[in-house]
Amino acid sequence: MSTSVAMHMSDGLLNATTSMLFIGVAVLGLAVAAARARATLDDRTAPMAGLVAAFLFATQMINFPVLPGVSGHLLGGALAAILVGPWVGALCVSIVLVVQALVFADGGITALGANITNMALIGTAAGFLVALALRRLAQHGRAGLVAVAFIAAVFNTVLASVGFVVEFAMGGETSFPLGTVAATVIGVHCLIGIGEGVITALTVGAVAAVRPDLVYLLRGTERPLELRTAAGVAA
Fold this sequence. Notes:
Strand 4 and strand 5 (about 230-235) form a beta hairpin. The chain has 8 helices and 5 strands, in the order βααββααααααββ. The strands form 2 sheets. Strands 1-3-2 form a 3-stranded mixed sheet, with helices on one face. Helix 3 (about 75-85) crosses helix 4 and helix 3 (about 75-85) crosses helix 5 (about 110-135). The protein has one domain: Arp2/3 complex 21 kDa subunit ARPC3 (Orthogonal Bundle). The chain has helices spanning about 15-35, 45-60, 75-85, 85-105, 110-135, 135-140, 140-170, 180-210, and strands spanning about 5, 65, 70, 230, 230-235. It is mainly alpha-helical and about 240 residues long. About 65% of the residues lie in helices and about 5% in strands.
């Protein structure tokens, strides 16, 4: 029997005080993201955000194996941040998490704040900051952008798992030793991060191949990627 390990905390894993604390953190973080997202939404970002949310929802429902009996799935923070920006990206990931929790019971209702904090806030921020730091590499061509997407996605996954460990240390309800939990969760998510990196790199690379102007990370760069067609350079 395969066990899915990909960040979605269930009800009862954190005590009530910690759960309520991170519901507050999630609400505050999403309020800031919503306010900042208004400045980045335009006729390109708005439809792209819908497509990103739909893609994340679909891919998060698909598990890939990482160890015998253990599987993971895409978190999507770096992918969303690179394509639509960190603020809109955080909202996209959050919408997916809310629908999964309410409709598919994937992640607990009381743990929704912690799940949003880890995957939508920490994951998206970490992925975007890493991608932003490596943006010069991304400007060198699609191969550079794909490499940056892979690295950002790995960091997105591992740092999101660190968020889980911090929350568990603050209010974990089980009797498992914290060191064991930390080593297991972070170790497994290092492997999940490789799968996350591959999916993110392929997706960002596919978008950049046909519409490089839709890649948020490359906006405002001095040397945007060019769209090459059979007739030559188109954009």
